[in-house]
Amino acid sequence: MVSRRYILRIGGGLLAGLLLPRLPLAAEAVEIRMQGNADGSHVWFDPVGLRVETGQTIRWINLDPGNSHTATAYHPKNFERPLRIPGGAEPWDSDYLLPNETFSITLAVEGVYDFYCVPHEHAGMVGRIIVGQPGRFPAADLSVQATGGEPIPEIALRAFPSVDEIMRQGVVRPA
Amino acid sequence: MRIVVATLAIAAAFAMPALAADQVEKAPPTGAYKKVSDLVKLPDFLPGLGQLYVDPKTLPAGPFLAYNRDGRLVSTVYMLPVEDLTNKDKRFDDLAAPGGKVNHVDVYFNAGHPGVEKPHAHVVLWHVPRADETRVAAK
């Protein structure tokens, strides 16, 4: 016989499931759009923060008709920039994407991945992807200067959403 | 015969200045100008600006020559990095202005793009009336 307590427990679990951010299934590529306004005065990644499961494919697409963009991991192999992806993870650099061009990678190592757009880092065009389960990452705020390489401009450091915000929301849209 | 030679010499003398100046009215301009989309990975036609040409030696300031879809010069653009504009020791002097008569001027911020990667100001000398700016608008 199904008890009322059991029903409440199941119902509570379902409710909790509805409240948690839905993580994309690994089979679906998650899209990050590269965008800009008409006169090129503002550029951004959308979403700017994203939480996914291990093995998730991420696809960047340039939807900005008047500009080129890159998705480039912070890593010494990319222009000697500071390391801001998990140790052992492969860095990536899309090179310049013209309008409607795309670039994809699959993230196999858990951790926090920070990336930027080469011509727009100084305009704060950066993003953050968290791969894996909640609670496995140190609570430290990663929006600080990492050692090595050309320092990250303050405007870019301020643009990263916090790990907590990404964990809480799953997807963080640009302000 | 002597008259013919003298006439040719005079004609050549008058022609020399015209030959020395770059032709910029129609795309492609002559001289050292190169198509920007051949120099860096940018769309060939930029909405709001048009098809751009620049002498690479003049980067980042330019002048960039901007043409509409009919290949007519519509504006001359200078791209001035914000960090240079706020540097009291930096000046932009004697920038070339080959485009002729200016109808009006726009100045606005740009976040950057290949070729001029840092935030900068676009100073746009329009050679056409404001109504004709639509000739370089997005389709």
UniProtKB/TrEMBL annotation, chain A:
<dbReference type="InterPro" id="IPR052721">
    <property type="entry name" value="ET_Amicyanin"/>
</dbReference>
<keyword id="KW-0479">Metal-binding</keyword>
<keyword id="KW-0813">Transport</keyword>
<dbReference type="InterPro" id="IPR006311">
    <property type="entry name" value="TAT_signal"/>
</dbReference>
<protein>
    <recommendedName>
        <fullName>Blue (type 1) copper domain-containing protein</fullName>
    </recommendedName>
</protein>
<dbReference type="InterPro" id="IPR008972">
    <property type="entry name" value="Cupredoxin"/>
</dbReference>
<dbReference type="InterPro" id="IPR000923">
    <property type="entry name" value="BlueCu_1"/>
</dbReference>
<feature type="domain" description="Blue (type 1) copper">
    <location>
        <begin position="37"/>
        <end position="131"/>
    </location>
</feature>
<dbReference type="Pfam" id="PF00127">
    <property type="entry name" value="Copper-bind"/>
</dbReference>
<keyword id="KW-0186">Copper</keyword>
<dbReference type="InterPro" id="IPR028871">
    <property type="entry name" value="BlueCu_1_BS"/>
</dbReference>
<keyword id="KW-0249">Electron transport</keyword>
<dbReference type="GO" id="GO:0009055">
    <property type="term" value="F:electron transfer activity"/>
</dbReference>
<dbReference type="GO" id="GO:0005507">
    <property type="term" value="F:copper ion binding"/>
</dbReference>
TrEMBL record, chain B:
<feature type="domain" description="TTHB210-like">
    <location>
        <begin position="69"/>
        <end position="109"/>
    </location>
</feature>
<feature type="signal peptide">
    <location>
        <begin position="1"/>
        <end position="20"/>
    </location>
</feature>
<dbReference type="Pfam" id="PF18197">
    <property type="entry name" value="TTHB210-like"/>
</dbReference>
<keyword id="KW-0732">Signal</keyword>
<protein>
    <recommendedName>
        <fullName>TTHB210-like domain-containing protein</fullName>
    </recommendedName>
</protein>
<dbReference type="InterPro" id="IPR040832">
    <property type="entry name" value="TTHB210-like_dom"/>
</dbReference>
<dbReference type="InterPro" id="IPR033786">
    <property type="entry name" value="TTHB210-like"/>
</dbReference>
